[in-house]
Amino acid sequence: MTSYVAQHFLIDAGGADCTPALAEDVTMTHQDGVPYAVLAFDYACPPSENGHEVVSTLFPDDEGFVSGTKTILTYALDIHEGSTVLDAEHPSFTTAQTTLERFWEFFRLGAEHLLTGIDHILFLLALIVGSRRLREVVIAATTFTLAHSVTFILAATGLVAAPAEIVEPTIALSIAVVGAWYLWRLWRGGKVDQDLSHAHGFLRLDRAGWLRVGVVFLFGLVHGLGFASALGIDEPWSWTLLWSLLVFNIGIEAVQIGIIVVVFPLLVLLRRRAPRIGMWASGILAVIVTVAGLVWFVQRILGIE
Known about the structure:
The chain is of the alpha+beta class and 305 residues long. It is 56% helix and 15% strand. The protein contains eight helices and ten strands. The chain is elongated, with a radius of gyration of 23 Å.
């Protein structure tokens, strides 16, 4: 194991390889119920005037067990410090990397995480379908953002923790609840797209709107724990780490806003041009979201992959 890491995680100093040496005994930890090996290496590097290049080709390879990895690297080299992300498409970086390049790496990681996280996308679609006006979807999305940002930062920096056995089923249940909420309103026969011009008070939300905001905020807190768990960060607090997490979060929000900008106007247009078809389309989407959430909830409770 130590030889594998030494061969696949390399540091180059101006064309000369740095020599790795195991600094501590290998230890084992558990994260989200999965065992991890912890290896600490010291790298002896010759002097270099051209900075250092870090190359990671850790997994996947012909062992066939790991399908892909993303290595979050925090460094302090050549009077430069920061964080970056290494994966199969971007296996290396140099200490001469600009601030913009570092920003892009974590922005991309956050965007990819949301795009590949179908559960979070379905939750967002449930919010969009259940919103009667643009004001409601903006307030719901902003509430979700604020809530998951808080727990995401706290969990990723190790200030709070929650077992995955609770977080993951709750995320699935939140998807089902928000989708079923819209279906319940349809079943009651109310006008789910009714005009909200009669709503008064702060943010011009009625009672149903405020109740929905409260529920979205609570579920957003749980989703933030899920985002942090996906990163798998296990390092002490630092301003560099905070900067990286904030940029990761910006990447998530950019994709979230993009989905809203594309889906909600189309839904509004359909509801206005063909109200019955719009209602059926919204209802079918809500059914899909609700069923998917319930299936995932049962699978995660039972531990079924």
